[in-house]
Amino acid sequence: MARLCQRRGAIFAALQAGFPDVAYETYGKPSPYLIMEGLERSAVLAKDAVFIGDTPATDGQAALAASVPFVLIRRPVRAVVAMNGRQGQ
Known about the structure:
The protein is mainly alpha-helical. The chain has helices at residues 10-18, 33-42, 56-65, 77-83; strands at 51-53, 70-72. It comes from Paenochrobactrum gallinarii.
């Protein structure tokens, strides 16, 4: 049975399970690829940019790998509860 992969999505996990011999590369965080692509397309140097995120393990690591300063935001507890589908807390 195929296992769903965190941060990769169900569709990717299904493709990976159906085609296990196919080489692949993912571009999601914590890979710096998307940050570096954004810097290149906007002609901005890493030292002149800042990456804002709410998850140090993915957002922060991607920023570090791209040599971009990282700003961690903390969401209010009520917002996190609402995003997780739990009401009334």
